[in-house]
Every structure is written in C-alpha cells, then in structure tokens.
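Supplementary Data S3. Sequence and structure tokens for construct A.
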Amino acid sequence: MAEPASTMGKLMKLNYPQHVVEYSTYEEAQAAVDYLADHKFPVENILIVGTNLKLLERVTGRRTWGNVIVTGAMSGVMTGLLVGLMLMFFVGDGNMMMLWVGLAMGIIFGIIAQGLTYAMSGGKRDFSSQRITVAANYEVLAEHKVAQAARDLLMERPGARAALFE
C-alpha cells in the first residue's frame, strides 16, 4: 500500500542537509552509505539524491493502424481471460464457451481502446517508445549535525583519498 504524500514528504526530508560526497553512479553512492552503515554510523540521517536528471526516450518503432490493432489485441488478452474465467465460474456453470466469450470481449475492447487513443492523437505521435529518467550524479546528503562525521568516516574508506584527485 502506498504511503500518503505527506508521510512520504517527511521521509524524504532532512533538517539542514549538507553535502557529504558526490558520485557518478548510484552504485557508488549506495556503497558509500553501506560503508557508513557497516561502521555503525546513524544512516537514518543520510539521503541519496539523484541530480542533473535527464529524460531518455528510445524510439522503438513507427505506429501504424496495424501496430495499434495488434497492440490492442495483445493488451486485451489478459483482461479477456480474466473476464472469461469470471463468466465461466459465476455465470456459465463451468461452460468453456464463456471463457471464449470473455476472451473475445477483452480483445475487442483492447483494440477499441488502443484505436481510439491512436485516432485522437491526430498524427502527433506516430511512433512508439520507451522512456526512462536517469540522474547524471548522485549526491549523498546528511543532517548538519552528522555531516562532518560522515565525511571523515568516508575519507577512511580504502581508495577514498585517491578518488579525490580523479
């Protein structure tokens, strides 16, 4: 169950956060926080923040009526199977014909939904794609009262001083 926005906002907030260190990958930031945790540091005072966000969108193909119909049919299959099973068990007394009816209904409604969406786009988005948001850097922040202790502890990490000069 998702937490209310106010609870989530409080969870993601530090009082007077200060910069501790910045990394180019999330794995490096996670390893730093893990190092702090291994050394009994109060990590509940730490926040990893992805900065310099970028939206990447990989175009996967051109959208045509053929693609739209196939995509709609495929998306309707699972819904149709669910509806068909419900019809079969609760209305049709185990009659397999109800499963096929539900499947057909799901496919038809999937095609209609995808078709309407495509038709209403007015040709403004005649391609399909996958989107992802990525961060260019990951900053480790800490509460002001423990920030310097976190910096000091991370400087004791093997290879930490060499990383400063890269």
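Construct B, processed identically:
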Amino acid sequence: MLRIAIRKKSLKLTALATAVALVAAPMAATAQENRGPPVLRDAETEQLLREYTRPILRAAGLEKQNIQMVIINQGVFNAFVADGRRIFVNYGAIMQSETPNQIIGVMAHETGHLAGGHLAKMREQMAQAQTQMIIAMLLGAGAMVAGAQGGGGNSGLANAGAAMFSAPGEIIRRNLLSYVRQQEENADKAGVKFLNTTGQSAKGMYETFKRFTEESLFAARGSDPYVQSHPMPAQRVAALEELARSSPYWDKKDDPALQLRHDMVRAKISAFMERQETVYRRYPMSNNSLPARYAHAIATYRHGDLRSALAQIDALLQQQPNNPYFYEVRGQALLEGGKPQEAIAPLRKAVQLSNNSPLIEMMLGQALVATGNNAYTDEAISILRAATAREPEALIGYTQLAMAYGRKGDYAQADLASAQAAYLRGDSKTARDLASRAKTRFAIGTPGWVKADDIVSAKPLPGQKSN
C-alpha cells in the first residue's frame, strides 16, 4: 500500500543546511514549516528501512529511543533528521541507491547527527547567533543616532553605525556555516564507526557522497569555502574515503537476498510514483526479473487493466507464496478496482504474513467497510482500533473507523474518529466542532469523553485552521 499523507506536525529544522537559512529568511522558513511535508506510507518499504537502520541505531545507543523512519514524497535525493526522533528520507534517495549499502550509509550518516545531538546544539548556536545579531543591531542603531545628533561632524560615526547592521550579520552567518560543516564531518565519522561496529561496509556511503561531489564540482568551482554549509565536496569525500577504506569491511558485499528486497522496493516505488512510460523504460517487457515483473503488475493495475494485473500478481505469488506484500498488492488492486469483497481474502493473508502490519490492517478494515455489509462492521472496528493504536498518525485509519461506527449507529465514536481525522488533516476548527459534539454524546469522564475533550482543548498546530 503506497499512500500519500500530509504529516500534521511541522518540522522545526528540515535539515542542518536549511537551519542556517532560517537566520537570513525567517519568514520564508516559517511558511515552509507550516505546510508540513507530504509523507508516503508503505508497509514493505518502511519495514525494509527499519531493518536497515535497526543495527545502526543499536550501535549508536539509540535502539530504545523509538526512532522512526519517514518517507517523503520527493523524487530528489535527500535525507535529514528532525526533532531528534525521526529520520526523513526522500523516496528519490531509495530510488537512486542501487544497493542496500548505499542507503544504509546515508542512514548511518543521519544517525551520526542524532547520536551527536546536532539538532539541539544547532538550536543553541542559532539562539546565540540571534542574540549576537540583536546586540549588533542595537549597537549599530545607537551609533547611527549618535552620529545624527552630532550633526555633520559625526557622519563617519553614523556611517559606521550603518555598516554594523551588515558586517556582524555576515560574520555570524559564516560562523554558523562553519559550525554546520564541522557537524557534517562529525556525522561522517560517526556513520563510518557505526557501520564498522555492525560489520558493514562504508563503501556505499562513500559512493553516494562521491556522486554528489561529481555532480556539484562545477557548481562549487570558484566558490568561497567559508560560505558553504557543507565541507567543500572534494575535501569531504577525500577524508571520507580515507576513513572508509581503512575499514576491514570495505569490500563486503550486500547479501543477495537483501539486494533482491531492495530491488523489489525500488520497483514498487517506481510503479506507484513514476509515469507509465518511465516505469517501462526502467523495466522493459524483455526484463523478466522478479522486480521488473512486480513493477509491471502494479503499473498494469494502476492504469486500468485489473484482469491482466491479477494474473501477473498470481504469477508472482506462485514464485513467492509467502510474500505478504504480493497479497497486499492483490488486495489493493481489487479494492481500488471496485471489488472490496474479493479484496478481503488476500488482505487477510497479507495481515497474517506481515505479522499484523497496521498499515495493511487499515486497508483490510477499509475493504470490510467498503463492502457495505453490516456483518463486517464489528470486525472492521476491531481491526481499525488496533491499527490506529499502533499508528496514531495514520489518517486513513480514523476516516474508515468513523464510517464503521456511523454504520453501526454509534455516533459518539463516529464523531470522535472524525474529529481525530480532521485534527490529523490540520483542520483544527472542524476537529474541535466534531469533538465538542462527541462530548455531548459521551458520558462525562468516560475514555471517549476525555479524548474528545483533549481535542477541544488542544491548541492549533502551526499552519492549522483555527477559526
């Protein structure tokens, strides 16, 4: 299941390099924050990323911190950390990483930022910079006033005061950029250390940054190294190469089974996110590999040929009869093809084989609701409640739960679920209105009443509608 959602929580720092830009353009940065990033949800991809990062987080001493992997709906290569508990990665980074080791290296680098507490330290640096900027501006303003009061004889003092508005700002900006460059270098070193600890090669990390170097070499030519947010590419990659090559695991290859799973996820993302002609250019019909056939099956159903798609998915299942994500895709194709009753069986199998993935449970709940059969209502509610308890920020779970409760005639719970869905959408006014109505339907002090009251009392998040 590949779905796009808008994450309700705004990001205080989208990347360390962007954090420096906040000093120069706070208004633009705030507007960027308020929109929130478009997030992709897919059980298969998220599970693979969790498996990639789990040993790295363990090596960093962060295994118990519940660090989440979040996939951003952007085709460019990028990854960053935010709020100390999430690693964000663009789907483009997965697509452009030809081996597991390459994306694992990127995750190791980002874990280095988390382990080093770089976000908190960066906020401290920015707070200090803001204070320094304010002092410099006040001093400059004072000098200008003194120059003006002294008449023409003090014009030099007035001019000096005006200069103080600009010069300190440039010095502070350079200091911040230098600080960020040092953090990037430290994250590189930490990432290699974590990879060594887990017995993995740092070659993929080096290959990724080397590719960036080659792409940005012309753009960086002649630039001032002191106004770069990252170390000058050639210098950074040279240092990383020396460090990575010293590892005894430099030539270690990815396990073939892991490489296949990586290729399957890339094929799935391509089929869902790219144009049909692009998919078939990546995976021509002459390519009979499992990833290519996976991409073909998904692209076929997405472009309207359900019967052919089901035949292709069934052929995949003959080859891997215990692959939960093949059953998931089969169920999704039937559900989106207007056959919810037929989607139930493969989705049940997908839930079972995936160890009750909450995202797949939500799709099963959606299929049960979509049948319009009241005999499925209680089961749908039970499944959706369990899924939303483990994935409390998944909007689709609450919308389907509201429909199921409404069908049952439980309007208190239907209003509450609708309120939760509205809150996740960022519509705080609708959320409060629905939660207020839910409160009148619940007995005072009951769990439902308390949850509704929490929504009524919650302050709007940045960018949410408040009236």
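The chain has two domains: 1-272, 410-467. Residues 6-35, 131-148, 156-166, 217-231 have pLDDT under 50 and may be disordered.
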